[in-house]
């Protein structure tokens, strides 16, 4: 069953153009990862440094494999260099109701 992962990040407000570039580069691998169905980037209308990345995955297993990849040396990105706080991840199960 598909899942949606919400990755909430706080970008450095003084470096937004660079942060957007780093985020875009990071998401190339995300979008190309096996099981990734969709990725959208949203920003708080009152705080553009508050960004939520909305990822849809074929299954919880695909999402877990992606998280393991990101935790490995091969999957590391530069995203951490433009954050002012650790990201928050919420994984949501799709309900058929």
Record keyword descriptors for this entry.
single chain, 97 residues, alpha+beta, Alpha-Beta Plaits, four-stranded antiparallel β-sheet, 2 helices, 4 strands, 30% helix, 31% strand, globular, ABM_dom
Low-confidence runs:
none
Largest sheet: 4 strands, antiparallel
H/E order of the elements?
EHEEHE
How much of the sequence lies in strands comes to 25-35%
Helix-strand category: alpha+beta
Q: How far apart lie the N and C ends?
A: 14 Å
Please, what is the average pLDDT? 96
Indicate the percent of residues in helices. 25-40%
General form: globular
Main β-sheet, spatial strand arrangement: 2-3-1-4
* Rg, nearest Å: 13 Å
* CATH fold title: Alpha-Beta Plaits
Q: DSSP helix count?
A: 2
* Assigned CATH class: Alpha Beta
CATH architectural type: 2-Layer Sandwich
**Overall structural domain count:** 1
The total of beta strands comes to 4
GO molecular function, one term: monooxygenase activity
Organism: Rhodococcoides kroppenstedtii
Protein name: Antibiotic biosynthesis monooxygenase
Domain ABM: 3-92
